[in-house]
Amino acid sequence: MRQGIVFYEKAVATDPNYALAYAEMADAYRRLASAGFAHPTDVCPKARQYATRALELDRSLAEAHTALAWVLFMYEWEWDAAEAELKQALGLSPKSFDVRFAYAHFLSDAGRHDEAVAQIRRAKELGPTILIISATESMILNAAGREDEAVLAAKQALDFDENFWPAHLQLGLAYYRQKRFADAVAHLQRAKDIAPTAYQARSSLGLVYAVMGNKRAAYEILNELEDPRKDTYVPFHKIAMIYNALGKKEKALDLFDRALAEREVHLMDIRTERSLDNLRSDPRFIRLLKAMRLIP
What's the average model confidence in pLDDT over 192-218? Predict the structure, then answer.
């Protein structure tokens, strides 16, 4: 992603009116935050800047509308504006799996699960060999409470590539939702082994250990995630979920407040995380959801 940005910068230096290069550069910056390679406040404003520049140059460019939409809903929590951009992108490029993929994410985060499943499956039809779509289908089905289907979607990705760690991650999370904890740990550990620096695998494994009651293993994961010597970004809300599952409610809420202040891009995942059900009536948690406009 970072090397891609270098080339996009060279492209716009050569041709300052190259709208597609600005749009793709915006998406690259956004992906750095989405994947956990950079702090969102460092890269999401740049993503917005370049997406806006692309639209100034060419409002008919679906990639630019999509890049802006990602920032609007993941970072700025401007749901109506994001959906307007996505609908424009769909109108401009109805056969783009990238647009459908983005819209599916938006709908899932907005709690419109049936629509989200329909969009991700349309994206899968348009890009059947793109493994991240199948892994994301599993994630969206998990959020919708359709764990059996989530298992199948993740396994489809692994049929193509047994070392595709996001599919192991989603399969592990589907098993976790089914309370098949041994299977969950096996696949989350597999994801961690394949991608040892990915916070998603480690934090999910820590959460499962905590829910299982294996406090020692959960705290070992927390020590890894909170190690001040680490050189990778770990979102506060992922650490908060582990603490909450360990019974450290106030510590978790403090971390959620920090996550909100830093506008973490996957913070809205807390809407469907069942291990947080004990917080649903807490005023601090309610304020958190309201701040992201997830509830009225």
Answer: 95
